[in-house]
Amino acid sequence: MMHKFENYLVVGISSRALFDLEEENKIFEEQGVAAYSEYQIKHETDILKPGSGFALIKALLKLNKLVSGERKTEIIVMSRNSADTSLRIFNSIKYYDLDITRTVLAGGSSLSPYLSAFKTDLFLSASEEDVQGAIDANIAAAIIYTHQLSSENFNKEIDQIRIAFDGDAVLFSDESEIIYKEQGIEAFQENEKKNAQNPLLEGPFAKLLKTISFLQKQFDKNQSPIRTALVTSRNAPAHERVIRTLRAWNVRIDEAFFLGGMAKQDVLKAFGAHIFFDDQAIHTDPASEVVPSARVPYKK
C-alpha cells in the first residue's frame, strides 16, 4: 500500500540534532570525511547519546499511541551521511526504541530537494546550510542548538509537548519587523495601530502552526497532547493585529506573552518549552541555556 503523509505532522531531523554527534562532527571538520567515515564504522556498535532534539522527537512519536491504529506524526531522519556510515544511527534508533523507519541518506548532497518529496512540515538541523536551503524552499526549518542542557532533559518522559514561537519573521512575515529595523519603534507601533484590522502575512512557520492546530482540535482542549505559546517582543498597542491574525487563520495559541522587549528565557523556562523558535540570535542564544532552542534564518 502506498504511504501518504498529507494528514500527518511530518518532521525531518538531522542525525546531529537527534543524537549527540559533536565529537564526530569535530573529526569531520578537522580531519575530513575519510577520518569521519572510518571513526563511525569503527564505532558503529557504540550507542549515541541523545541530542538536543531527542526529547521532542520521542514525545512526538508518542502521539501515534494515543489513538489505536491511527498515526498522527511521522519522523524522518535526514542526513548527509552515506549509507555505509549510517549503521551507528540505525543502531541507536533501535536501542532507544524510536518508531522511526524512514531515512534520507544523501551522501554529502544537499537535503533541501528531498524535504518537499517527503511533505515535510518541519526540518531541524544543526547545519546552517541545510536549514537555509529548506527555508529558501519554503519549508519551516530552524538551526537547533546542539550544546547539552542536562541529562534529565533527555531522560524524563514528556506528557504534553510544549512548543514556543516568536511572532515576526517566524509565524508572521517580516514586513513589520523591517519597518522597526529601518524606521524605529515609533513607526512600527504606528503601522501596527493603523493596520490592526489587517491580518499579517504568513511567515515560514505559519503552515506548521496550522498543522499543529489541526492536530490539537482532534483532542479535548483540556487533554491536548500539544500546547503552544507565542513569545513575542511586541506589546500594546501592537498586540491587536497579532490576535486578529491568529483569529483570521482559525488557529489556536494556548498561551501568549507580549514582552515589550523583555528577555524571553525566563518566560520560556516557566512555560517549559521543549523547543523554542526565534529568528534572532539575541533571543535564541540565552534561551538555549534553559530550553531547547532553534534559530530561523531569513529567506534569501
Describe this structure in words.
It contains 14 helices and ten strands. The chain is α/β, with parallel strands linked by helices and 300 residues long. The chain has two domains: 9-150, HAD superfamily/HAD-like (Rossmann fold, 3-Layer(aba) Sandwich); 161-295, 3-Layer(aba) Sandwich (Rossmann fold), CATH 3.40.50.1000. Strand 4 (122-125), helix 7 (128-136) and strand 5 form a beta-alpha-beta unit. The longest helix has 11 residues, at 206-216. The protein is globular and about 60 Å long. The two termini are 39 Å apart.
Helix and strand layout, with pairings?
Blueprint: E1 9-13, H1 15-18, H2 22-31, H3 33-42, H4 54-62, E2 73-79, H5 87-95, E3 102-105, H6 112-117, E4 122-125, H7 128-136, E5 141-144, H8 151-155, E6 161-165, H9 175-183, H10 185-194, H11 206-216, E7 226-232, H12 239-249, E8 255-258, H13 265-271, E9 275-278, H14 281-287, E10 293-295
Parallel strand pairs: 1-2, 1-4, 2-3, 4-5, 6-7, 6-9, 7-8, 9-10
Antiparallel strand pairs: 5-10
Helix pairs in contact: 2-3, 9-10, 13-14
Question: What would a concise description of this structure say?
Answer:
With 300 residues, this protein is an alpha/beta fold.
Keywords:
300 residues, alpha/beta, Rossmann fold, 2 domains, 10-stranded mixed sheet, 14 helices, 39% helix, globular
